[in-house]
Amino acid sequence: MKYEVLKGCVINSEGRQKGEILEISDDDAKMLMGLGRIAPVNEQVIAENRSIGLDEESKPRRRGRKSKADL
Hints:
Structural class: alpha+beta
Distance between the termini: 63 Å
Oligomer: single chain
Strand content: 15-25%
Order of helices and strands: EEEEHE
Number of strands: 5
Helix content: 10-25%
């Protein structure tokens, strides 16, 4: 499982900085989570881009504003 480093610490004899994401063994993870040094990372699924006209070659049509004379 992947974890994010919340505070600078030493993990597996290597210095780690805040914000790094890495995989750690379960035993080390329990200890470091208890100390508040790391937190589990939820990997987010990137949603597809549903923009209008994304796949089309032509641009989407823009609707103009009615002039005051037409009102």
